[in-house]
Amino acid sequence: MMKAGISPPTRSTKDSGLDLEKLEVKLKELEAELLEINANNEKLQHTYNELVEYKLVLEKVGEFFSSAQNNAVARQRELEVQPIVETSIDSPLLMEQDATCPIKHIKLGFISGLVSREKSIPFERILFRATRGNVFLKQAIVDHHVQDPLSGDKVVTYFKL
User: What's in the keyword line of the UniProt record (predicted)?
Assistant: First the structure.
């Protein structure tokens, strides 16, 4: 600066100390704010990933139940149109009133969710063992890459029902 002919500004040490203290306080405030923003961003990303998973599960469950309902309606129409002939191979073994006997009520439930490809076979085995073989498992490949909310890794998943 001396070579260029510019004289350095003269400040007292007292003024520069106050400026540095103000800057330090401001810097600490900004650092705390930045840490809070990063924490909120992580929470939002976690929530977003969970919601994407829920959306995919609901879409696949909707497809499954709508196709099952359409198949049931078509089967019901087919049964109403065709008279039941006892000698036919396709005739049901039980009459309709026997099939809906109120004595035995069967409770059916379903579980749906996303499972990564690597874990699908062990999951299937666990379900089979836990239900003693009384499980109907339907899988579909999800076309969307999902980010695991816990680990943050992108995974390709199967839909299980």
Answer: Coiled coil, Hydrogen ion transport, Ion transport, Membrane, Transmembrane, Transmembrane helix, Transport
- What would the two tokens of residue 156 be? 């390709």
Tell which residue, 135, 115, 112, 131, has the closest CA to residue 123.
115
Question: What is the SS3 string spanning 36-100?
Answer: HHHHHHHHHHHHHHHHHHHHHHHHHHHHHHHHHHHHHHHHHHHHHHCCCCCCCCCCCCCCHHHHC
DSSP character for 119?
Answer: H
Residue 33 banded pLDDT, cuts 50, 70, 90: very high
Which of 113, 123, 124 is closest to 148 using CA atoms?
A: 113
Tokens linked to 31:
């650092």
Whether residue 117 contacts residue 161, with contact meaning beta carbons closer than 8 Å, is answered with no
Stretch 46-60: mean pLDDT, rounded? 87
Question: For the chain, which residues make up each domain, given as ranges?
Answer: 13-160
* pTM of full prediction above 0.90: no
| Selection from 155, 124, 150 nearest residue 56 by Cα | 155
Instruction: For strands 157-160 and 154-155, give the pairing.
Output: unpaired
What average pLDDT does the segment 81-94 reach? 60
CB 97 within 8 A of CB 84: no
Which residues are bridge partners to 141 per DSSP?
158
